[in-house]
Amino acid sequence: MLTLAFLARPADPTRAARNRTPMDLTLSQIRRLIGMLLVPPTRTPTTLLHWSTWRRHHPAAARRNHYQRRLTTETT
Questions:
Q1: pLDDT per position as a tens digit, 2-47
Q2: Cβ proximity of 16 and 63 under 8 Å
Q3: Given Cys at both, which of 4, 6, 17, 25 links 67, Cβ 3.0 to 4.6 Å?
Q4: Which DSSP category does 16 fall into?
């Protein structure tokens, strides 16, 4: 629990929607990563890190595309 409290931080409301960096880890993602490290692994650490990276990039890309689509439909 101490690790979870240390890694969790509040979301940054000033973060630009077009930012290409991955989103911050959520509490559930932190819990999953810690749990995967403590339970005997069924997946390799490389697979786990790949999942984590994809899981953070996917919502960021979706958000960016959503805002881009809203901007193009508002101007037409």
A1: 666 656 666 666 665 666 777 777 888 888 888 877 876 677 888 8
A2: no
A3: 17
A4: -
